[in-house]
């Protein structure tokens, strides 16, 4: 397994800049790159990466995706004067040429290919390329939306041909729809393209019908194009995580890509004038971490948009920090996605139901009554600020975001004292083996256990020797319930009884939602305490007949691949699931006994 993270950056790409007044393009500035690179240095992340040089993409490589006409037009601009540059730029929607644009765009392409080579050769495990001009809006025969050559699309085509890859996932978390990438791969089943984007029912640029959730791909490519439109601004971390848990990750695990490319735009982050979203930089650590679980970690992150310099650079740092293997920050704040996000997620899951096994039991009955639903949405709609207002607030808005990010990132990077772990160990002698952050706790003594069990758990604990095994679990659990530590580890010869007692003890202590994941067979199936416990039981023998609780899911571990379970756990852990009726299936043909129908709440 390769290790190490590549970082590709070349100052040359800062020479492309706008020479005339254009309020649409004036946000795509060279400082986007230099500011991000400086921030990486400031967090000492550059020195931890393998610095790989960029190179110019060759004409042949550019022709993997673009027409020779497009290449020739781009090439011809190198010797143009400002007036000619302005005229040629006017042929495209939201693009500007500078005499150095062609060279910068070729370096941007080459940087992406260097990254693919570094990962595919095993020189590194993953990496990031800081490039401009971006690429995901550019099309076979046109520049568009600040993009001249489609860096990520060329990287995907290049990887397919050079390394014979058959399954490449492109995740586009930029706030704009990468229509260029969609057009290039919509008939190609070997490239799965996922994009979320500000859409507002086709109001937001590029305002295309084919950016909506029902554009699933064409011909053999049906099912390989996933569009998740955001129909409101202000989407936050919980909406982005729900999109990963309930759309991207289940499909991505099923697709099982050999390489993952990210069209990594950070204009989906807080403070960005284009996106107007609320997700904080730390969410990109989580998104990156999830994608690192695919393709044996072969992950190439290539910069797209991002126009709030502070928000952009913090998000770039969160991404690189995670690629390096640093632990991701705790997810904080609102956990439930908003109604509009839920509707978009439901729509895209329904649209892809015919193409993905993980969606084959999707309940799409809601589609019939969607009209009532959207009028519901209108009610909760905060009236959108007019263009004029948002422009005025933009200035002091940007400053406010700067302040917010200063404080927020301090918390993220220097959280409260490191999470403490409690453990009980047999002998004091082995105490020194435990890391300093682990707190050794004494087992609960027998009388205490007896008193506690006889009061509430006598039905669970039959024999005395079981009593003995509860001491260490209860001692650790007590420290967690009283918030003296965050987590703990305890061994027990009677695991299922200990778990049953621990679950009932936690609920009796006042916890309202307890997730239990039990691997192995259980003598007794604890009851799920009227919904306050969600139990995922990964076992040899199916035991679902013993309980009909919808909060008990048993999975036959022989049948369901671990990665699928991992995505299932993510999905279940996210409370959002309660609003969904969904089904999970085993990966084998004999689905009947491992399909669990979870009814709509
Ligand atoms: N009213 C026209 C707005 C054009 N906006 C282009 C944004 C390109 C972003 C690239 S990530
Ligand atoms: Zn963008």
UniProtKB/TrEMBL annotation:
Residue ranges of domain Histone deacetylase in the record: 28-323
Taxonomy, superkingdom: Eukaryota
A Pfam family matched in the record: Hist_deacetyl
Matches recorded under Gene3D superfamilies: Histone deacetylase domain
InterPro entries, per database record: HDACs, His_deacetylse_dom, His_deacetylse_dom_sf, Ureohydrolase_dom_sf
PANTHER family linked: HISTONE DEACETYLASE HDAC1-RELATED, POLYAMINE DEACETYLASE HDAC10
Protein's name in the database: Polyamine deacetylase HDAC10 isoform X4
Organism: Apteryx mantelli (North Island brown kiwi)
Top-level taxonomy: Eukaryota, Metazoa, Chordata, Craniata, Vertebrata
């Amino acid at each position: 397994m390769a290790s190490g993270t590549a970082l590709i950056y070349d100052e040359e790409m800062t020479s492309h800049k706008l020479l005339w007044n254009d309020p649409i393009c004036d946000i795509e500035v060279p400082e986007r790159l230099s500011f991000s690179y400086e921030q990486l240095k400031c967090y000492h992340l550059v020195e931890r990466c393998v610095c790989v040089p960029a190179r110019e993409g060759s004409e042949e490589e550019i022709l993997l995706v673009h027409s020779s006409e497009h290449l020739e037009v781009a090439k011809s601009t190198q010797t143009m004067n400002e007036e000619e540059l302005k005229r040629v730029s006017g042929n495209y929607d939201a693009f500007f040429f500078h005499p150095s644009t062609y060279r910068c765009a070729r370096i941007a392409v080459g940087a992406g290919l260097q990254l693919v080579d570094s990962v595919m050769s095993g020189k590194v495990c993953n990496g990031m390329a800081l490039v401009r001009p971006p690429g995901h809006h550019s099309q076979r025969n046109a520049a568009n939306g600040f993009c001249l050559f489609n860096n990520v699309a060329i990287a995907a085509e290049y990887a397919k041909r050079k390394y014979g890859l058959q399954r490449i996932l492109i995740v586009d978390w930029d706030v704009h729809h990468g229509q260029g990438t969609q057009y290039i791969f919509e008939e190609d089943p070997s490239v799965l393209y996922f994009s979320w984007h500000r859409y507002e029912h086709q109001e937001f640029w590029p305002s295309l019908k084919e950016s909506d959730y029902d554009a699933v791909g064409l011909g053999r490519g049906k099912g390989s194009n996933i569009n998740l439109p955001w129909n409101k601004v202000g989407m936050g971390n919980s909406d982005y995580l729900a999109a990963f848990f309930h759309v991207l990750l289940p499909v991505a695990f099923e697709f099982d890509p050999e390489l993952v490319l990210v069209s990594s735009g950070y204009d989906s982050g807080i403070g960005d004038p284009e996106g107007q979203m609320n997700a904080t930089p730390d969410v990109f650590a989580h998104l990156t971490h999830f994608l690192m679980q695919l393709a044996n970690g072969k992950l190439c992150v290539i910069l797209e948009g991002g126009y709030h310099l502070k928000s952009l650079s913090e998000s770039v740092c969160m991404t690189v920090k995670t690629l390096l293997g640093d632990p991701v920050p705790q997810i904080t704040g609102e956990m439930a996605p908003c109604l509009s996000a839920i509707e978009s997620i439901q729509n895209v899951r329904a649209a892809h139901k015919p193409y993905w096994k993980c969606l084959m039991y999707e309940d799409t009955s809601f589609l019939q009554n969607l009209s009532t639903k959207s009028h519901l949405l209108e009610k909760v709609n905060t009236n959108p600020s007019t263009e004029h207002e948002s422009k005025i607030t933009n200035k002091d808005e940007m400053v406010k975001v700067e302040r917010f990010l200063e404080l927020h990132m301090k918390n993220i990077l220097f959280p409260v004292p490191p999470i403490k772990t409690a453990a009980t160990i047999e002998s004091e002698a082995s105490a020194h083996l435990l890391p300093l952050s682990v707190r050794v706790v004494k087992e609960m003594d027998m009388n205490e256990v007896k008193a506690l069990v006889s009061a509430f758990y006598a039905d669970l604990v039959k024999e005395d020797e079981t009593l003995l095994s509860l001491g260490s679990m209860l001692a650790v659990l007590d420290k967690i319930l009283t918030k003296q530590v965050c987590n703990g580890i305890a061994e027990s010869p009677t695991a299922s009884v200990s778990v049953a007692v621990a679950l009932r003890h936690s609920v009796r202590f006042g916890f309202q939602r307890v997730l239990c994941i039990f691997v192995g067979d259980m003598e007794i199936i604890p009851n799920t305490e009227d919904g306050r416990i969600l139990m995922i039981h990964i076992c040899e023998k199916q035991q679902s007949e013993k309980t009909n609780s919808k909060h008990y899911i048993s999975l036959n571990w022989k049948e369901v691949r671990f990665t699928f379970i991992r995505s299932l756990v993510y999905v279940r852990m996210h409370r959002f699931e309660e609003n969904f009726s969904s089904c999970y299936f085993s990966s084998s043909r004999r689905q009947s006994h491992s399909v669990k129908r979870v009814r709509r709440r």
